[in-house]
Amino acid sequence: TILIIDFGSQVTQLIARRVREEGVYSEIVPFQHAAEAFERMKPVGVILSGSPASVLDENAPLPPPSVFDSGVPVLGICYGEQAMSHMLGGKVEAGHDREFGRAAVTVARPSALYDGTWEVGGEYPVWMSHGDRVTAIPPGFEVIATSPGAPFAMIADETRHYYAMQFHPEVVHTPHGAALIRNFVRRISGATGDWGMKAYREESIRRIREQVGSEKVICGLSGGVDSSVAAVLIHEAIGDQLTCVFVDHGLLRLGEAEKVVTLFRDAYNIPLVHVDASELFLGALEGVTDPEVKRKTIGKLFIDVFEDEAKKIGGAAFLAQGTLYPDVIESVSFTGGPSVTIKSHHNVGGLPERMNMKLVEPLRELFKDEVRELGRELGLPEVFVGRHPFPGPGLAIRCPGEITREKLDILRLADEIYLEEIRRGGLYDDIWQAFAVILPVKTVGVMGDYRTYDYVVGLRAVTSVDGMTADFYPFDMAFLGRVATRIVNEVKGVNRVVYDVTSKPPGTIEWE
Ligand code: XMP
Asked: Which of 253, 325, 327 to mutate to test the pocket of ligand 1 (most atoms within 8 A of CB)?
């Protein structure tokens, strides 16, 4: 077992994920509970996460000293390096050269951390994100790599098995970061295991039973992979204590409702209530143009509908959701924390305080591809597991400006044509997510001998590993031309099609 002590970094879960990829079980524990967790878990290695805090602050969060008294290998990442240096007799100062983004380190000495990966004298790309930096290393340590902005970019005490780095090895932008973590976990800490989604499934089932007891659970199904996997997992844990509710908010894609109902009611035999609430949602969204207001309105109504349904089934104490880790991190601001709210994801941030059901979120620690794997483990059909993500607020956030039934109808048709062409071209599985948006502007065109004045449809397609960063998909122009022609010809009310070539960041995947 590896203990990951969390100091509030945006990317702590990525550390856990890298450890999971090694087949090794880990737990993330907030620093306040680290001493107790260290006792309980008896980990073979400890990783200290990054943090928005500064060790120079009064009350700076620090790992418990017991970690360093135990002889267990420790890896400090970013703030973790500073905390380690601070506690073991080194020095940390506020940096004049703050380093954010791509940087390169030069390897100064051999280290067990580099086995099979980096060599002395080599220069390697890494992802930095820090203000403070270490200016004097603790006794017993040596510098094992440097960078222009951080002379102590990597330090190690090979005898005591303490390693620390100023950059983030857990993010994909540090290309060999996973290998460094692997060396720490496998070789230096000696962790073993074949922990995977099979173990996750068993562990989740146990946790769900423990959390829920004999209470009833209601689960919002959106038709997406996440809520489906959550529902099947929870059903496996508690059987018919679970009722699924599929809310048609009038913001679904073409034919979506039928697909979901068929799969769950017929194929899985999971109790499913299909609520047609489109009047309610579209009524409340009338005249709303602000994206956050849209999200919050939808989130609130979802809860209203769930609460109603919960009453109907004789009181459900729990609401289950397929919230994933990236939803959590982008919606939540930690206490004293790093992360500003980017968007209020409806399954996290939009929950009104008054909601009187407790949450069951068995996928909260996972990334999309892990959820897909869990879905396969649970026997969900491949076409379902491989589906592109679809957001809870649905087409509302693909219709910037005012939402009208007319625009939604146009959008549904355009989206259907676009996806049909993508499937036909065999591109669906290469793309993380593809969808159409309808813009709140009309432009002039000419069709036949007539002037037209119609809506613009935007096409979006991105590749991504986890939805947190993304690149636009490089379709060939002939493909885009074909889609544009079909949409303009077949969808009344559209006379122009554009393709979005923005990556994330700076864009987000959805337009709102
Ligand atoms: P963004 O647009 O923030 O989206 O780059 C990242 C991923 O999250 C999906 N998304 C949502 N999923 N509820 C969800 O369940 C939401 O409110 C929501 N907003 C965005 C988005 O489709 C993409 O896959």
From this structure: 327
Cβ of 220 closer than 6 Å to ligand 1, yes or no, is no
CB of 106 sitting under 6 A from ligand 1: no
Ligand 1 binding pocket includes 388 (Cβ within 6 Å): no
**CA 510 to ligand 1 centroid distance, Å:** 7
In angstroms, the CA 282 to CA 275 distance is: 14
C-alpha span between 370 and 1 (Å, rounded) = 20
Please state the pTM of the whole predicted model: 0.76
Please tell me the distance between residue 180's alpha carbon and the centre of ligand 1 in angstroms: 31
Three-class secondary structure of residue 356 per DSSP:
coil
* Residue 223 marked ligand-binding: yes
- Interface predicted TM-score of the whole assembly (ipTM), two decimals: 0.97
Strands (E), 108-258: 123-130, 133-136, 142-147, 150-157, 162-165, 217-221, 242-248
Tell me the pLDDT of the chain (512 aa) as tens digits.
Answer: 999 999 998 889 899 999 999 999 898 999 999 999 999 999 999 999 999 889 999 899 999 999 999 999 999 999 999 999 999 999 998 876 667 778 899 999 999 999 999 999 999 999 987 778 889 999 999 999 999 888 899 999 999 999 999 999 999 889 999 999 999 999 999 999 888 899 999 999 999 999 999 999 999 888 889 999 999 999 999 999 999 999 999 999 999 988 888 888 877 889 899 999 999 999 999 999 999 999 999 989 988 898 888 889 888 899 898 988 877 665 543 333 334 455 665 554 445 455 678 889 999 888 888 999 999 999 998 888 999 989 889 999 999 999 999 999 999 999 999 999 999 999 999 999 999 999 999 999 999 899 999 999 999 999 998 787 899 999 999 999 999 999 999 999 999 999 999 998 889 999 99
User: String of b and e for 150-188 (b: at least 16 CB within 10 Å)?
Assistant: bebbbbbbbeebbbbbbbbbbbebbeebbbbbbbbbbeb
Residue 16, Cα to own-chain centre: how many angstroms?
13
Residue 224 marked ligand-binding: yes
Residue with tokens 């947190």: 468
Atom of ligand 1 minimally distant from the CA of 345: 17
**Angle (nearest 5°) at CA 452 between 450 and 456:** 150
- Backbone φ and ψ for 37, nearest 5 degrees, come out as -65, -40
* CA of 34 relative to ligand 1 center, distance in Å: 32
- Asked if residue 312 has its Cβ within 6 Å of ligand 1, the reply is no
Give the span between the Cα atoms of 225 and 390, in whole angstroms: 8
- Burial label for 461, CB within 10 Å (0-12, 13-18, 19+), is buried
Cα 103 to averaged position of ligand 1 atoms, centre (Å): 29
Known binder of ligand: residue 278? Answer: no
